[in-house]
UniProtKB/TrEMBL annotation:
Its main location: membrane. It is a peripheral membrane protein. Residues 20-254 form the ABC transporter domain. It comes from the Bacteria. Belongs to the ABC transporter superfamily. The keyword Transport applies. It is found in: Cell membrane. Coiled coil: none annotated. Keywords: Antibiotic resistance, ATP-binding, Nucleotide-binding, Transport. One of its GO terms (biological process) is response to antibiotic. It holds the Pfam family ABC_tran. This is ABC-2 type transport system ATP-binding protein. It comes from Amycolatopsis pretoriensis.
């Protein structure tokens, strides 16, 4: 049953090979009010065994990018190679090597949790006995053993998401893609899903996911591309991205009224209602300056908080804009 063997990790000249490569990827959707350029020329390179995040605010082009990487969306221009196969010319070869957990519920609603896993394994060519074994393995691995007889509507949001991930893994895909795996589930279940993904990564699984949650990306992804307006702003190890913010902290200051008319001089501020956010490496004297600027404008400074250098400060430094999920 070749489809259920653990795929070998491709190695080129002693170095782990790229398993996902996107070159000049672009997507323009036709729309009534004129074409929408969702992805405006993206290059990506993911190596075997990586835990890679496509991070960006809503509408940045993440889902479209993952759609093109997984053969579901046809690129307007550019190319995708998966494990050495061209996604446009060899889509079947590509689909055999990948699995996608999409944002929408893709489980079979007529079947129990266990049946979903068994039928999926059979679909990929497993014998009845192999399907039973694989289902048992996955139920145990994903903490769903006591839910094996449940229908999808009897599962919590987190259990359903874990089951969708388990179902995507029956054939042991070389690359697991996930589109917003923690969207719409409660905080506790979110951590649970990230834990599951962390364990998969530790076992050698290549994972590529999209997320708009900048804190979760910072905590869990090893390498990330920050996407905005259909372009990759930066792509690097998460720790390097944070370091590239140059020790910059994000200071949030809240006044007793709107700050839209306030003059902050040369301070690079992002205004939001009664608050401003400043990304700066020079915090000395900043509070006194903010108090004084407030007094000049007839505003009282109510609160100041400082967040350590993070992916969020890297985003602010890169774009001059606060990150809005
Ligand atoms: N089928 C479509 N037809 C027209 N425009 C589309 C289509 N799909 C996406 N778009 C537009 O393309 C842009 C990128 O959307 P995409 O869903 O790829 O972004 P995203 O980063 O995944 O955001 P979200 O997290 O909100 O889904 C958005 O402006 C969106 O409105």
């Amino acid at each position: 049953m070749a489809g259920l063997r653990t795929p070998a990790r491709p190695v080129v000249a002693g170095r782990t090979a790229s398993v996902v490569t996107a070159t000049g990827l672009r997507k323009v959707y036709p729309a009534k009010r004129g074409p929408v350029e969702a992805v405006a020329g993206i290059d990506l390179d993911v190596r075997a065994g990586e835990f890679f995040g496509l991070l960006g605010p809503n509408g940045a082009g993440k889902s479209t990018t993952i759609g093109m990487l997984t053969t579901l969306v046809r690129p307007t221009a550019g190319s995708v190679r998966i494990a050495g196969f061209d996604a446009a010319r060899e889509p079947v070869q590509v689909r055999r090597r990948i699995s996608l957990v999409s944002q929408t519920n893709s489980v079979d609603r007529e079947l129990t949790v266990e049946e979903n896993l068994r039928y999926r394994t059979r679909y990929w060519g497993g014998t009845r006995a192999a399907a039973r074994r694989r289902a048992d393995e996955l139920l145990e691995q994903f903490g769903l053993g006591d839910r094996r007889g449940a229908m999808f509507y009897q599962l919590s949001g987190g259990q359903l998401r874990r089951m969708m991930i388990a179902r995507a893994l029956v054939q042991r895909p070389e690359i697991l893609f996930l589109d917003e795996p923690t969207a719409g589930i409660d905080p506790h279940s979110r951590v649970n899903v990230w834990d599951v993904l962390g364990e998969l990564h530790a076992s050698g699984q290549t994972i590529v996911l999209t997320t708009h949650n900048i804190e979760e990306a910072e905590r869990f992804c090893r390498r990330a591309a920050i996407i905005d307006g259909g372009r990759v702003l930066v792509c690097d190890e998460v720790s390097s991205l944070i370091a590239s913010a140059g020790g910059v902290s994000v200071v949030t200051a809240t006044y007793d009224g709107p700050v839209s008319e306030m003059d902050f001089g040369a301070l690079p501020v992002v205004r939001d209602g009664a608050s401003i956010r400043v990304s700066t490496a020079a915090t000395d004297g900043l509070i006194a300056e903010l108090v004084s600027l407030g007094t000049t404008a007839g505003r009282r400074l109510l609160d100041v908080s400082t967040a350590r250098p993070s992916l969020e400060s890297a985003f602010l430094t890169l774009t001059g804009r606060a990150y809005r999920a």
